[in-house]
C-alpha cells in the first residue's frame, strides 16, 4: 500500500487501508514566512471602559512557532506535527510534536530534534519518518548531541512506534529535507541536499525502509524539491528545479519508481511548486506559478496523470498556495492568499470541489496555513495563525468538512504535574501548572490529604521537576531561576510554612532528581556546576547550604535518585560515573566511592528509583538488565543481584515508583503488566505478584507517585482515572478505591488585568503569580 507524506499532507478517510487508490502528499514550506513566532502564552482581549480599564488576559497554551508539517495519521489517528516551534506550552517539544486525533493531547516524551522539522510521514506501523534541518534527535537534544539517548541524524530520521530512534535508518543528508513520500518499502526524500550518505543525490533520493540508498532511483535535479506525491508506480516531484537528469522539466516532474523520467507528464510551470496532492487520476499543484503549459493558472492547477491540464479546475488564488489536502471530491488549499476565484474572500484556507466549484467551507484563520491533513470528516490545519473563525487556535486547528471548528481538538496541555512529595498531612506538587483548584499556584503547591489547597505558594517562574521533603523543609528542583521573585537557580528550599530558605546551591542547569537523607540533599540533573564549582550532574548540598566533596562525576543526565543506608543510587541517561562504565544506573557511597559490586548494566534509560529493605527498584525505558530481559522495571538487591522473581514485564516505560510496605507502585506510559491490562499505573508486590484490585486505569501518562498511610497520590498528564475526571492529579487508596476529587487542576482561565488608559495599551500590573513571559504590550 502507498503511504504519503510531506510537509503538509492529507489523507482520505480510508487512507491507511490496503488497496486505497488515493494517496496525497504535499509540501508547503516558505522560509520567507518562517520567522519564529514569539513564545507568548498570553492574549489580551480589550474592553474599552473608563480611564483605568480592566481587560481580560487568557493564558493560552500552544506552539511558539509555525507548524510546517502535519503527517497523515497512524492507525490510532495520531499525527506528527513539525515546524519551527521549540515548545508546545508547557512542554519543550523541540520542533516536532505527536498529537492525538480526538483530544489534541501531545505526547511530551516523543524525541526532539535540535532544528526544524519540515516534513513528516507515518510508516504504517505507528512510527514516523521526519525530515528537516537538524543534526540530532533524542529525549534531551541539544546542539552538542552528547546525551546517551541522543542520536546524530543529519536532516532525516525514523522514529519507531515506541518513541525510540531507529538506529538502522540513517540516510545522512548534507542539507534540508522538505518533503517525504512513503511507498511500500521505499522512502522518497526531496529537499535542498546534494549527497546522501556521502553519495551524490541532487535534491531527491530513495532510501529503503531498511536504510539502504537506492542505486537505480536518481532523478538528479538542478534545484530544490519542495513537494512529493506518490501514486502507484509514479513519484511526482515539485519544487524550484528546471531540469531532471539533464532534461527540461520546469518545476514539476514525474519519475517512475524504477527511476525513469516520464516523457508524457510535463506541466511546464513558470514558477515554483510548493505543494502536491494526488487524487485518483489527477495531480493537484500549488505554489508561486502563474502559468501551466503557457495557460494562466494562478498558484494552483490540476494536471491529469496523462499530463493534460484541467480546463475546469482553476482556483485563481491571490497569493502563494503552500499546502494541499484532498479527500473524496474536495481539494483543500492553504497558504497566504486572501481571495480565490478572482475575488471571493478566503483568508489563508479554501476548499474547491474536483469539478472546480468553490466550496462554502471557510475556516478563516488569521494567518498563513502551511500544512493540511484530512481524515474522514475533519481537516487539520497547521501554520502561523492564532485563531480560526475568531476562536483561539494557536498554530493548529481542526475544522470539519462542513466548516465547523472542532471545539475539542484544541491541544491545551495547561498543567502537567511532574513531581510529588508527601509529608504529614500535606502533598506537595511540582510541575508546569499555573492554577490549582482555580487558584494561582505557579509550578508548586501544597494540597492537604483531604483535598484542601493550602496557602503554601512558593511562586516559581518555570517548571519544578523534583521534590524532596525533610522535616519542615521542602526542597525543589527544576528549571526555575526565581522563587517568589528571589533568585534561586534550579534548586531552592521552602519551609512548610511557605518561607523561602537561604539554602541556595545555584546550579547552572536543570535539576531532575532529589534525594534527602539526614543532613544531606542529593541533587541530580543536567547541571555541571554548583555555586560555580564543577559537579557533573550529581552533587550533595548539606541542609546548611554547604557543598559536599561528594562528586560522582556523571557523564550525562541523572533522572532518578534513591538513598538507602550508606548508598546513593543514581539512574538516568549516563554511561560512565567517575570515568568508569555504568550504563544508566550506579551506586555511589555517601563517602563518594563508586560501588564495584552494584552494576545492573541496563540497555536503556532509568527514570525512576524506589528503595526498600534490601532492594532497589528501577523503572525506565530499558529492556534488559545485565543482559537478562526486564521490560521497563526490575529489582536489584543492594548486593547487586538481579531479582529472579520480581519481573513486572511492562510494554512501555516507567516514569515513577513509590514503595509502601510490601507493594511497589508503578506509573508511566505502559498499558500492560505481564500481559494484563494496566493503563499507566499498577501495583506489584515485592514478591512479584500483580495486584488484581489496584487498577487506577489512567488515560494518559503518570509521571509522579507519592505514598502515605493508605493513600497513593498520582500526578501526570491524565484527565481521567477509572473513567472519572481527574485532571492531572488523583488519590487512590491502597485498596484500589478512587478517593474524592483531589484537587482538580483547571485549564487556562480568563483573569483580570489592569491596563493603563482605556482600550488598548500596555499592561501595567498582573494578578499575583501570572507571568506573561514576554512584553505584555498588545
Layout: helices, strands, pairs:
Elements: E1 2-6, E2 42-45, E3 53-59, E4 67-70, E5 79-83, E6 96-99, E7 106-107, E8 112-113, E9 116-122, E10 128-133, E11 136-138, E12 151-152, E13 156-159, E14 177-183, E15 186-191, E16 195-196, E17 199-200, E18 204-208, E19 225-231, E20 234-239, E21 243-244, E22 247-248, E23 252-256, E24 273-279, E25 282-287, E26 291-292, E27 295-296, E28 300-304, E29 321-327, E30 330-335, E31 339-340, E32 344-345, E33 349-353, E34 369-375, E35 378-383, E36 387-388, E37 391-392, E38 396-400, E39 417-423, E40 426-431, E41 435-436, E42 439-440, E43 444-448, E44 464-470, E45 473-478, E46 482-483, E47 486-487, E48 491-495, E49 511-517, E50 520-525, E51 529-530, E52 533-534, E53 538-542, E54 558-564, E55 567-572, E56 576-577, E57 580-581, E58 585-589, E59 606-612, E60 615-620, E61 624-625, E62 628-629, E63 633-637, E64 654-660, E65 663-668, E66 672-673, E67 676-677, E68 681-685, E69 702-708, E70 711-716, E71 720-721, E72 724-725, E73 729-733, E74 750-755, E75 763-765
Antiparallel strand pairs: 1-9, 1-14, 2-3, 3-74, 4-5, 5-6, 6-7, 8-11, 9-10, 10-13, 11-12, 14-15, 15-18, 16-17, 19-20, 20-23, 21-22, 24-25, 25-28, 26-27, 29-30, 30-33, 31-32, 34-35, 35-38, 36-37, 39-40, 40-43, 41-42, 44-45, 45-48, 46-47, 49-50, 50-53, 51-52, 54-55, 55-58, 56-57, 59-60, 60-63, ...
Structure characterization notes:
There is one protein chain. It is built from no helices and 75 strands. β59 (606-612) and β60 (615-620) form a beta hairpin. The model is unreliable at 1-62, 87-92, 101-106, 410-415 and 744-778 (pLDDT under 50).
